[in-house]
């Protein structure tokens, strides 16, 4: 879907999320959301807060799992994704604090792999994700699933795990950390297995600097070198919401 501008795309995304929350809560008494950080989804969270305040949208039945967190990272650090979620959403709606999950950037090194696998089990134990919200990195990354030379069948089935950040990702995060040298080199990311199993997936990408990643994701080969292209394996469960600039190379 190509919208006239990014604010309209974000309104549409928030309305889809609100509809999912209402439908899943009505049907099963709960909704399970996969949430994303970055600059792109901030207006989506603003709209959800507005729907909560003015339109009776309750998130009391929602369980959420965020995509990623820097590693190592204290949840109390203002640059953590946990702090971001608190600022933009968790502190402003009635989502129960003990149901709002992010990967924990304080897990000891030796327990990281097991922790990632447990994170996938927690998602599965909730019945999987009703909806996963995604942004797209300039290098085509999804969450912190970075470009990689591995075979496609393996790339489609990755667990939640520790990863090394790509140089483009470190450069893009520099503004949030006061310089590239302060950006953590590693992160925990939800894997493609849990992301691709979501019952619906919304991908938001805006601006000219995402145009190449969007075109490579939607029209190039399906390859682990472009993690966004792996989303095509989820077929019509995936909706891309773009502005004209991000769609300009299609
Ligand atoms: C970050 C996040 C991704 C996000 C992407 C795009 O590094 N880990 O989940 O989608 O990069 O960020 P932005 O929306 O700020 O362009």
Automatic annotation (TrEMBL):
Glucosamine/galactosamine-6-phosphate isomerase domain mapped to chain residues: 7-240
Cross-referenced CDD domains: GlcN6P_deaminase
Keyword Hydrolase attached: yes
E.C. number(s) listed in UniProt: 3.5.99.6
Organism expressing this protein natively: Tautonia plasticadhaerens
PROSITE patterns per the UniProt record, alphabetical: GLC_GALNAC_ISOMERASE
Keywords of the record: Hydrolase
Record-given protein name: Glucosamine-6-phosphate deaminase 1
Pfam family, one: Glucosamine_iso
Record GO terms (molecular function): glucosamine-6-phosphate deaminase activity
GO BP, one annotated term: N-acetylglucosamine metabolic process
